[in-house]
């Protein structure tokens, strides 16, 4: 199958997925379930972009939740301090996340593999500590001191998308379609990148840096591009998260959140096209069934991650692909046997 045909096929699947979710509120009207689907959109966006960076570009970064938090904090601070409309803050938050990723990408240029993971996780930890230990008063909000980056309490009750006033009881539908639009932009953009020339360059660097360099592919340029693209769309997800929940706080940096999103990529299948979406849906179902278990939820996530790494190292998407190939081989053998 040539590259152009593969791109068209995956774009068609993307359009069908988006169309299906667009029609979902016609049959699913419960506010709680629509809220869970909104969360699915956001976590799937993070997982898809993490998979682009790690699975296709071969950059083992652990800074993805930092980009997500940057988008959320940018919306919170922009609307709270600067009076920026949330609709203007959304693209600005994505740009701020991309700029941050550009500098982190520069810092990682001389590193590979586990060293990139260690450096990026150290940066995330440093930012987290700086935020939660911040004590200096920046301004007064509702007769209480507000730190510049929100401190341990974070930000809350800032401007949302405005659908509570516009749609009143059906405000969740407005938020749903905003999140769906961002999800659609992400899924279409990721498919175009993965199955286009940029994706080929990413995979060439991932598989053999020396060979890629001999073919004129600049590792530094494409590594920074991978950081910036994934951070832009991840920051957009974080911005929508902040607008939906009207909150942004240091809990976004928690290791359990990092493990949750990473498990989506691993369970779905690292380096696949649809794995992150499949993994996001699977892990959200696991979380839904494990609600009320307290700290045991993290244990369940860890166990699920270990099981998939050992039993299905290529994830659900890879296992489905292997099963289809096996059926294809059996069909071809049967055809050969029937002609003999």
UniProtKB/TrEMBL annotation:
Transmembrane segments: 12-28, 59-78, 84-107, 114-133, 176-196, 224-245, 257-287, 299-317
UniProt keyword annotation of Membrane present: yes
Molecular function GO terms recorded: branched-chain amino acid transmembrane transporter activity
Family matches, as InterPro entries: ABC_transp_permease, LivM-like
CC per GO annotation: plasma membrane
Compartments where found: Cell membrane
Sorted UniProt keywords: Cell membrane, Membrane, Transmembrane, Transmembrane helix
Pfam families named in the record: BPD_transp_2
Membrane topology recorded in Swiss-Prot or TrEMBL: Multi-pass membrane protein
Highest taxon of the lineage: Bacteria
CDD domains associated with the record: TM_PBP1_LivM_like
Protein name per its UniProtKB record: Branched-chain amino acid ABC transporter permease
């Amino acid at each position: 199958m040539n590259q152009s045909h593969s791109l068209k096929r995956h774009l068609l699947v993307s359009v069908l997925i988006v169309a299906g979710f667009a029609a979902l509120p016609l049959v699913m009207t419960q506010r709680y379930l629509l809220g869970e689907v909104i969360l699915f959109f956001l976590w799937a966006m993070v997982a898809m972009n993490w998979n682009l960076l790690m699975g296709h570009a071969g950059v083992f970064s652990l800074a993805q939740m930092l980009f997500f938090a940057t988008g959320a904090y940018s919306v919170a601070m922009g609307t709270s301090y600067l009076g920026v409309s949330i609709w203007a803050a959304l693209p600005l938050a994505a740009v701020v996340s991309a700029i941050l990723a550009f500098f982190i990408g520069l810092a990682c240029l001389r590193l590979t593999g586990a060293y990139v993971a260690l450096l990026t996780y150290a940066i995330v930890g440093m930012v987290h500590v700086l935020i939660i230990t911040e004590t200096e008063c920046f301004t007064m909000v509702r007769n209480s001191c507000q730190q510049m980056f929100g401190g341990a309490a974070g930000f809350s009750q800032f401007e949302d998308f405005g659908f509570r006033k516009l749609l009143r009881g059906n405000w969740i539908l407005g938020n749903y379609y905003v999140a769906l639009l961002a999800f659609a932009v992400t899924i279409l953009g990721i498919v175009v990148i993965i199955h286009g020339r940029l994706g080929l360059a990413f995979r060439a660097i991932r598989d053999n840096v020396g060979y890629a360099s001999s073919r004129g592919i600049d590792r530094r340029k494409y590594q920074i591009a991978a950081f910036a693209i994934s951070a832009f769309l991840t920051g957009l997800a974080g911005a929508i998260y902040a607008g939906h929940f009207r909150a942004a706080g240091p809990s976004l940096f928690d290791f359990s959140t990092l493990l949750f999103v990473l498990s989506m990529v691993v369970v779905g299948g690292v380096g696949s096209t649809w794995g992150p979406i499949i993994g996001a849906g699977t892990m959200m179902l696991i979380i839904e069934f494990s609600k009320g278990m307290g700290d045991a939820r993290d244990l369940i996530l860890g166990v699920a991650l270990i099981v998939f790494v050992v039993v299905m190292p290529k994830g659900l998407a890879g296992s489905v692909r292997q099963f289809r190939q096996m059926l294809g081989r059996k069909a071809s053998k049967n055809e050969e046997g029937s002609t003999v």
